[in-house]
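assembly run, all chains below
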Amino acid sequence: MAVAAEAVVEAQFVEHRRGFRRRWYRTPSFVAGVSILGLIVLGALAAPLITQHNPTDQDLLHTLAGPSRSHWLCTDDLGRDVWSRLVYGARTDLRVAFLAVVFPFTIGTVLGLVSGYYGGWIDTTTNWLVNVVVAFPFFVLIIALVFVLGPGTRSIYIAITLVGWVSYTRIIRGEVLVAKRREYVLAARAAGLSDRRILSRHLLPNVVTQAIVFACSDVVLDILAIVTLGYLGLGVQPPTPDWGRMAADGQTFLTTHWELSTIPGIAIIITALGLSLLADGLADLLRPE
Amino acid sequence: MTEPLLRVEGLRVEFNLARGVLRAVDGASFEVQPGEALGIVGESGSGKTMALRALVGLLPPAASVTAGTVEIDGVDVTVASEVRRRELRGRTVSMIFQEPMTALNPVMRVGRQIAEMPLVRLGLSRREARDRALELMRLVGIPDPKRRSLAYPHELSGGMRQRVMIAIALSADPKLILCDEPTTALDVTIQDQILKLLGTLQRDLGVSLVFVSHDLAVIAQTCTRVAVMYAGQVVETGTVDAVFREPRHPYTLGLLRSVPDFDSVRGRLSSIPGSPPDLALPPAGCRFHPRCPFVQDDCVGAPIPLIELAGERATRCLYHERCAEDARREPVVARG
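ok done. output:
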């Protein structure tokens, strides 16, 4: 009996010990999210290997062709291979979306840490800025900013950074307000550690989880923004393939060739689904003990 | 007599609340000599924790020191710059907290937490700091330090966590360690181990301790001198022996009387009637008078000063003789 009890205790210890590594495969949403996203990323990386055609090569003799051995997902109105464009489009859109999350994540996290920890005028100013940005709808602001800055990926990064940091600041600030009342922060101060060290070594690792989880769903939002901008002609510029552009171009032929708009649409949905599942799984796995 | 390591004079800590000013600590004075252990006893809300936090300048945002001086190693902390104060923290004074679970960073391996001060404050190299952490873990009696240093706080038991806290507190060779109820969250056998450890460390390393607790037995076991706090004031000071054998303040007497005595079980545990006063509106005169069995007319008027007595004792009671008499008639019991 006692031996069995000890074995259980030991097992629990090991369980805790390797918490993340032992539990990840028992979190279905995490596994599903990683698999879906992994396949898409793998496909994007291996684009030259899994496609036969250059995504920008036009073949005006075979426009709007149906599925064939050579073009299994048809061709578009300029005779370009839809499958190639889809795969290369994933390269563009994923890269832009992930990069576009990095800047607001960093800026927003730092601002949230500082404003939550110090309070006072820093917090007041930050909150004021957050409220100004939040007052506008996300897409309206992004579209307006890109319109002003001129189309292209650089503008997308700038616009998403200017708008996106607020969410991270709000999340991190809230977490810091709770965490800084905890005794370990008091203990760190009683040890005479500098504010910078307390912020970076003690507070940040304790509060960043929520921001990471949010970042996963933020990538979805960014993909949608990029695709929307592409659809409006403000996003990634042709001839670079991009799912938004593909959906927009296919629109003209919606009644006769619905697949031209539908295929990139489905790709967007699957990617978003993968990211959402991943975010869900991460939220479960990274929850503090 | 040598220069005291810690000298607190007329310390006053006030909270600015919506309903008025709350005086959490009102004119507390005490001293700690190098290598000495001072106990501060009092019930919850008597201001002992706030007094302790004021010593290192770590009061909550709403509270501030409004009067008095706190001299640590010759530096007046109340007027020193924040930079100077930070210099003292950890190096000269360190702290041990009540709840080792919340006082350790939950997402940092304990070895790194112990190595942090040597690394940052003592300027040791990464390897030296790690070796120092292992050495400290051995010193505080953590078995298998190499393996434990890789553990996260939630993987350790309460007693082990408190040992880690003590190792952190010792890590920069402080002269004074402030202990805020370090054993309250532990069960009695572990509590005893931790107290013995603190006693050994105090003797061997020559550090001074300030030991805040509501548990008289804990104070009796660890300290040589004691200050009893009630409603923000120090009401009695002296050696643990003298104060616990022959209290000269009715509050101390009441505390000692409410320690359960297993040799003569009397059915009901005696307690002090009434409840502690509202610190925003303390009673006039002696703050204990509404609950005092010996209360006289002149206890109610003017504030009672701390009266110096023979044998380096002091009390805030005008009728301390009656207290002592009562204690002689029916001896009080303090375990430990």
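Chain A has one domain: 2-285.

The domain at 2-285 of chain A is CATH 1.10.3720.10 (MetI-like fold).

not gonna interpret more than that til we talk
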